[in-house]
Every structure is written in structure tokens, then in C-alpha cells.
Design goal:
The chain is of the alpha+beta class and 453 residues long. It contains 16 helices and 16 strands. The strands form three sheets. An eight-stranded mixed beta sheet has the order 1-5-6-11-10-9-7-8. A five-stranded mixed beta sheet has the order 13-12-14-15-16, with helices on both faces. Helix 2 (36-52) runs antiparallel to helix 6 and helix 6 (155-172) runs parallel beside helix 10. Mean pLDDT is 87; it is low at 448-453.
Length: 453
């Protein structure tokens, strides 16, 4: 009896599930049509800026061997320990969805011989994946624009990357909302000496460390400096400073970076607690941050990683790069837009048609798109009643409507109606002069600001 009941319950659950709607995976969001224009504008600008600075595009696999990220990002980083989407493939290889782009770019450069004894400037854009708590501007599938430079080992190159990033903010009109923070992590040797001093200090205050810091103490103690826990800030402020352990070469590199940024008139703040969450960084690290999006305010970040190419099996190659989180930039663009008065609606044409007029409306729409490519032309195409179609036309961005019913189709005419002018009469015109009529009508719309609401 129990077995029969379980079977019935299982069948009922399956029946209910088969009729329930399936939603997106948490943290993996759809980008809807009304959001696409902002994304497209941002992506087009980034492609243009990469081209202006002499970067070539590289397209990288979304799936990589897990070991690539474990070795490059660091076995004891949050990304590898807690955030990667990892699974075992049929051949028992451990594979991971890429959590960032630098490791894959380095792997590709080594594999295809792009890095040996040459300078490469590469850029990429696409989805990344991290299993973390979704919040504003941070999702489990997110998108990054990244640039990497191989073969140049000086502070001027670091400054040019920062300048490129700075120019992007200027082009987007976001400079007033963003602050540049810089720091240096020094060489591997100086960082090792500092690590010992930091661990000694933290162990003296181990009882005051939170759970995350307790875990990081033996594995990744520098990340404790980046803790956002308010209760930890006093302890962190009194910790030894990495700058006291820098060798002369690292000091000179950082001074040259600051000097170059000063010459470029790019404002910055030195944040001695800025360490970044990935193991491969050395010397220069930087972040562009904002307070307009709450606690998670990093928009783009990067730095120098001279040892990574050799560590992953290539020749010793200096490298520097940065990555930008597109979701956060889009959020900031929305914030900025919300502070501005609404712009006038873009002039457009909406074709309302019934019966034989539907085919005529398609023909006229194509003529308008060919001869007036700068305007938006929307065809209703539903053959619904005029009342329903005019409701949709009124909700659209259209300034004018062209109306074609059976009578107009038979007479090869159309009716012109201004949608944003109350009590405007409909006027009849021959279909063969539709382009000149529409162009004149939209000129009147622009002149008299009929579209403003």
C-alpha cells in the first residue's frame, strides 16, 4: 500500500511540475528588448575604444579545464574554493565555466604561439560565471570586457591601460561618479616578506578575526586586508603596510606610474589596502569604483601579472590587463539617466492597416526604410480593428500614423494622422509620394515639438 501511495504521489508531483512554468536559473538573468539599446551602445563604444588603442579581438571558450583557473587564479581564492561552476565530464576531466578572462587569454596565447618574443594587445568580451549571492549589478552569469597586454614591462603601459579605462568613463559621461584607486603589491620576494609580517600580526589578534579571515589566515592572508566587515576595520588599519617592504624596483615602478598619471591629468587615490582577489597580481593594481551602486562598487579592475605566463607553461613574459563588469556599468548608466530630464521621443511612423491595406502597409514601410533610413518604421501587421491598432500606435514612439484600409488600398492612397496632436485631422495622400509626405510631416513634428509630453 505504501508503495502504491508513493507511486501515486510521484505521479501527481510529476503532473504538477509538467504544468508549472520554468523560470531562469537564479542569478542568470535575461536581458530584455527594452534593455538592449543601452547594452548595444556600451558594447559598440568598447569595441571602438579597443580599436583606437590598437587591440585585436580574441574569442575564448566558455569552458576550460578546472586546473587552468586553480593554478592561475589561486587554489585558495574565493573564486576557486567557493564560486566556480565545476563538473566532471564524461572522460572524467574536471571542467569549469570561466569565472574570469585573463587565464583563458594566457592559455590561448601560449597554445597558439602568440606571446613568445613579441608584443600582443588583445581584448575580449562575453559571459563569465561565478556562484555567488546575486545582488544589484552582480549576477552568477555576468559579462566582462577585458584587455590584456603581453611583452611590455613598464609603468607607462600600466598608465595607458588606466587612461583607456578613464577615456571610456568620459565617453559614457560617468567620470563624475567614479574614483580611481591604485596600489602596488611589489615583487614576489617583497610580498613574501610582507606576508610573514602580516601573518605574525594577525595571529596576535586571531580572536578578533571573523570567520572568513580565520579561514584566509593560513591560505590567503592578504585578502583579509580587503575585508568589508566594519568590525575588522580598526584591526586592518593598524596592520603592517606592504609599502614598508617594497624593494627599490617596485618603488620606482609605482613612482613612475603616479608620475605618468599626473602628467595625463588623471586623478587617483592611493589605497594601500587594495590587494585584488586573484593570486597572479604583482606591482600595479587598480580599481575604478563608485558609491552610486551601494557596497558592490567596483566597475573595472586590473593590474600587472608578470609571472603568470611562465607559471602556466609559457616563456617568461610581462603582462598587464583589466576587466570591466558590464552589468554594473549598465546599472550606473541607468542611475545617470534617471537624474536627467526625459528626452523627446524619437520621431517614428506607425502603419495602421486592415484588410487589403495590410499588404500595402508592408510595401510602404519598405519604401520608407529604404529612402528614410534614419527613422523608425513600425508596421502593426495584426489586421485587428482600428481602435486596437491606434492604442498600440499611441503607446509606441511614433509621431505619425499612416492608415490604410480597404478603401485606401483600392484607391492607392493612405491617411496621415499626427499622433501627438489632439484633434489633428487625417489627411489623404497618394501612396506614390509617401516618402516626401512623411519627411515633410516629421519636419513639422521636429519644428513644433509635437512629441514632447
Amino acid at each position: 500500500t505504501n508503495g502504491r501511495q508513493k507511486t501515486i504521489m510521484s505521479t501527481e508531483i510529476s503532473r504538477q511540475q509538467s504544468h508549472s512554468s520554468i523560470q531562469a536559473v537564479r542569478g542568470m538573468n535575461d536581458i530584455l528588448p527594452d534593455e538592449i539599446p543601452e547594452w548595444a551602445r556600451l558594447e559598440a563604444l568598447l569595441r571602438h575604444m579597443a580599436s583606437l588603442y590598437g587591440y585585436g579581438e580574441i574569442r575564448l571558450p566558455i569552458l576550460e579545464k578546472t586546473e587552468l583557473f586553480a593554478r592561475s587564479v589561486g587554489h585558495h581564492t574565493d573564486i576557486v574554493e567557493k564560486e566556480m561552476f565545476t563538473f566532471i565530464a564524461r572522460n572524467e576531466d574536471s571542467l569549469s565555466l570561466r569565472p574570469e578572462g585573463t587565464a583563458g587569454c594566457v592559455r590561448a596565447g601560449i597554445e597558439h604561439g602568440l606571446l613568445y618574443n613579441q608584443i600582443q594587445r588583445l581584448w575580449y568580451m562575453g559571459p563569465m560565471f561565478r556562484h555567488e549571492r546575486p545582488q544589484r549589478g552582480r549576477t552568477r552569469q555576468f559579462h566582462q570586457f577585458g584587455v590584456e597586454v603581453f611583452g611590455v614591462n613598464n609603468a607607462v603601459m600600466d598608465a595607458e591601460l588606466i587612461a583607456m579605462n578613464h577615456s571610456i568613463w568620459q565617453q559614457l559621461g560617468l567620470s563624475d561618479l567614479i574614483e580611481l584607486q591604485i596600489n602596488t603589491l611589489g615583487s614576489l620576494q617583497s610580498r613574501t616578506q610582507y606576508r610573514e609580517a602580516l601573518v605574525t600580526y594577525l595571529k596576535q589578534h586571531q580572536a578578533d578575526l571573523d570567520e572568513d579571515s580565520q579561514r584566509r589566515l593560513e591560505t590567503n592572508p592578504l585578502r583579509i586586508l580587503d575585508s568589508k566587515n566594519p568590525a575588522m576595520q580598526s584591526l586592518i588599519e593598524k596592520a603592517p603596510s606592504l609599502h614598508d617592504f617594497l624593494d627599490k624596483e617596485s618603488q620606482d615602478h609605482f613612482l613612475n606610474l603616479r608620475h605618468t598619471l599626473d602628467k595625463l591629468s588623471i586623478p587617483y587615490t592611493i589605497n594601500t589596502r587594495l590587494v585584488r582577489g586573484l593570486d597572479y597580481y604583482c606591482d600595479t593594481v587598480f580599481e575604478f569604483v563608485t558609491t552610486a551602486l551601494g557596497a558592490q562598487g567596483t566597475l573595472s579592475a586590473g593590474g600587472r601579472y608578470n609571472g603568470l605566463v611562465a607559471y602556466l607553461g609559457g616563456n617568461d613574459t610581462p603582462a598587464v590587463g583589466f576587466a570591466m563588469g558590464l552589468e554594473r556599468v549598465v546599472e550606473l548608466l541607468k542611475e545617470k539617466a534617471a537624474q536627467k530630464p526625459a528626452a523627446d521621443t524619437k520621431p517614428a511612423v506607425y502603419l495602421v492597416a486592415t484588410g487589403r491595406g495590410v499588404m500595402h502597409s508592408l510595401i510602404l514601410a519598405q519604401q520608407l526604410r529604404q529612402h528614410l533610413p534614419e527613422i523608425t518604421v513600425i508596421t502593426d501587421c495584426t489586421d485587428a480593428g482600428f481602435k486596437s491598432q491606434f492604442k498600440r500606435a499611441d503607446k509606441s514612439t511614433a509621431a505619425i500614423a499612416l492608415v490604410i484600409g480597404d478603401t485606401e488600398a483600392q484607391e492607392n492612397t493612405f491617411l496621415l494622422k499626427f499622433l501627438r496632436e489632439q484633434d489633428a485631422p487625417q489627411t489623404a495622400h497618394p501612396q506614390e509620394i509617401v516618402c516626401s509626405v512623411v519627411e515633410k510631416a516629421l519636419g513639422l513634428v521636429s519644428k513644433h515639438s509635437i512629441l514632447s509630453r
